[in-house]
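Hey team,

Filing this mostly as a record. A colleague (T.K.) asked me to run one chain through the structure pipeline before their review meeting, and I want the input and output archived in the tracker in case anyone asks later how it was produced. No errors, nothing strange. Just documentation.

Input sequence:
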Amino acid sequence: MVFKDIKLIILLFSIVQIKAQIKLNTKNEIDIFFEDSKFSLNKIFKGNESYLFKIVNNTNNTYIIDPYGFRGNNVVETCDKSIVEPDRIILSGLYRRTDNEDCFNDLVILKPKEEKYIPLSIITLKGSYDLNKNKKYILNLSSTHNKYTMTLLGCQDYIKNELEKKGYKVLEDNIVAKIPIVP
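Output structure:
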């Protein structure tokens, strides 16, 4: 009997792929997951890659999400909660949507019970960091996504006249999470 139980457990572990993920947002209507166990600064600053986030709609509503609509303050901290300042400041340009086509192409429509993987502007850093490989660091994320932060780049009329008239809802949520950093 015990031998059969052990075989069953081994079989289950070989079938099920366990993947680390961290829930980033505070509400439960939509789940936003970071699907890596650690954040790498090299991935952001030394390559053209960006992180994909898993978003899951747990409701029967259709939601509007602006990938660039997350506004807040993200900081790099040591494990004793000291803030690490960047070594070099990285300036970024201004992005603005000028017409409905830009809005149609940028905004994410998440249908009921749908799951998508998309890049989001949740992780924004003010510069590059030279971190000591012998220390542990944490990326402290804090941002908000709502109708105001979505429309800072444009699309007010498109959201109101095209999407909300169809019954779509704007995601109103906060990102509050701590992610270990790979120096």
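Quick notes for T.K.: The mean pLDDT is 84. The chain has five helices and 15 strands.
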